[in-house]
Amino acid sequence: MEAFERHIKVDNTESSILSLLSENCDLSATEIKNAIAKGALWIGRGKQVQRLRRVKKALKAGEELHFYYNPKVLDQIVPEAKLVADLESYSVWYKPYGMLSQGSKWSDHTTISRWAQTHLTPERPVFIVHRLDRAATGLIIIAHTKAAARALSGMFEQHALEKHYQIIVHGNHSEHDQPEVITQEVDGKSAKSTFNCLEHDRDANLSLIDVKIDSGRKHQIRLHAAGIGLPVVADRLHGDKSQQYADDLNLQLCAVTLDFTCPLTGEARSFKLDETLRPNLKAVAAKLT
């Protein structure tokens, strides 16, 4: 079935959400409920629109249902995220490859925000503080109160924390200056990354690099790595187009540490990703040989 969307004005408040959608879509009740559970339904009045999951919600005249059905999106499955720390007003997670930071109008079931909301006890609201690319992995913070979201978002906007990533690249970074500071602009904006080579595999000619970023431009690390001739392994967007990667080889870019002073409590916070979840030079070399 092709993707479609339906926008249904509520005139009869006696009608149920399920009956209205059934009348306007060639879908079974089970298919509709499954799509709603995954975030495909929105309700609003004028410009005020929000995602809706409660099929039994009483409708009001003048409201409008917005149903976005895309079977390819709804069928997507991603690996499980892992809870690193629960600090009540915010939590820290490991985001796996393929998981989004935020959803779209079509769904939010493959997002770290929805995962956090449904896997914390007790369940809490979720607010995105910063983002990781879909293809990137690693540590991400989710806020659970508006106050925490404001404070933590401000911390990221002011770069008042230290973030380290690890990447595996094609080539020998140990031949470059250590540390190597890269200030190539990204989309016309200033950007700064500091690369330190941790290890080089001579046979596969791959390097494991620690990256500290002082700005957060979109795809900054990937662009900086490619800009010095050492593209990130499995970077199918900015990397070496001549490389043929196996489908199961993920982008080798991972957020591994976060260090900051909590803007809510003033306490020093340090989060480090378990070694088993970080890029593994030997494992990647084996896949490429």
Can you tell me about this structure?
- This protein is α+β, with helices and mostly antiparallel strands.
- Helix content is 20%, strand content 29%.
- It is built from seven helices and 14 strands.
- The protein has helices at residues 17-24, 29-37, 71-74, 112-119, 146-157, 220-227, 281-288, and strands at 4-9, 41-45, 48-51, 64-69, 82-86, 90-95, 127-128, 137-143, 161-170, 180-182, 193-201, 206-213, 253-261, 268-272.
- The strands form two sheets. Strands 5, 6, 7, 8, 9, 10, 11, 12, 13 and 14 form a ten-stranded mixed sheet that branches.
- A hairpin with an 8-residue loop joins strand 7 and strand 8 (137-143).
- The chain starts with a strand and ends with a helix.
What layout of secondary structure does this protein have?
Blueprint: E1 4-9, H1 17-24, H2 29-37, E2 41-45, E3 48-51, E4 64-69, H3 71-74, E5 82-86, E6 90-95, H4 112-119, E7 127-128, E8 137-143, H5 146-157, E9 161-170, E10 180-182, E11 193-201, E12 206-213, H6 220-227, E13 253-261, E14 268-272, H7 281-288
Shape: globular
Radius of gyration from the alpha-carbon trace, in angstroms: 22 Å
Distance between the termini: 40 Å
- How big a fraction of the residues is strand? 25-35%
Total number of strands: 14
The major sheet is characterized as:
10 strands, mixed
Q: Total helix count? A: 7
Helical content stands at 10-25%
The pLDDT mean sits at: 95
Low-confidence spans: pLDDT under 50, at least 5 residues?
A: none
Order of helices and strands: EHHEEEHEEHEEHEEEEHEEH
Structural class: alpha+beta
